Amino acid sequence: MALFCVKITENVNKDKRMTIKKFFVILIFPILVGLIQIPTLGELLWSNETTHNVNYGAHLAVSVGSFLVLAVFSLLIYKWLGGTSIDWTNWSWKIIGTAVIAAVLSQAIQFGLSIITKTPTRDSETLTALHSCIGSITILTLLVLSPVLEEILFQGILQQEILGKFRPYLAIGITAIIFALIHGYSLGIGTLELLFSGLAYALAFWYTDDLKCPMLAHGLSNLIVMILLLW
Q1: Domain limits of the chain?
Q2: Residues in domain CAAX prenyl protease 2/Lysostaphin resistance protein A-like (predicted)?
C-alpha cells in the first residue's frame, strides 16, 4: 500500500512538472517563432545590395550559423518536453510517399485558389535572390533550413508535445491555423492558402509519427513554389 501511494505521488509530481514545462514553452512560443525566422534573413538581398554586389559570407553566416544554433536549441526543448529522437537514417516509402502527396496536394490547392481569386503568385524578392550571387543560400534555406526548424517547432513541439493530449483533429487543426496565421500575417486569401500547407504538414506528421515526413513535405512544397517562380 505504501509503495502504491509513493507511485501515485511520483506520477502526480511528474505530471505537474510536465504541465509547468508545457506552460513555460507556451509562454516563449512567440519568441521561438521569431527566432526560427533568423535564417531566412540570409536568403534575400539586403537593402544595400544588388544582384552582383552581395556579401556572400555574411549571408551564409546568418543562414547556416543561426540554423545550427537554433536547431540545437529547438531540439533541446523538444527533448525536454519528452520528444523522441529523430532517426535520420530511416527513410521508409511511407514517409517519402506521404511527404510527396502532402506537398503536391497542398500546392495544387493553393495554385487553384490563386487562379480562382486571381491572386498574384510571384514573389519578386525571392525571385531576385534566386537570380543573384546568393541563389545557392536561398535554395538551401528554402529547401532545408526553414523546413527543418519550422517542423521541429510546429509539429514536434506544438502538435506532438503541447497539444499531444488533445484529440488528433484538434491538435492538427490548431497547429495548422497557428502555422497559417504566423506565415500569413493577416486574414486573407494568402493565409487561407497557407492553411492548406499547415494542414498537409500536420496530417503528414500525424499519419507517419515521424518528424522527417513533414520536414520533407515542407521542403518539397517550397521546391514546387521555387520551380513555379523560375518557370
Answers
A1: 2-40+52-81+94-230
A2: 137-224
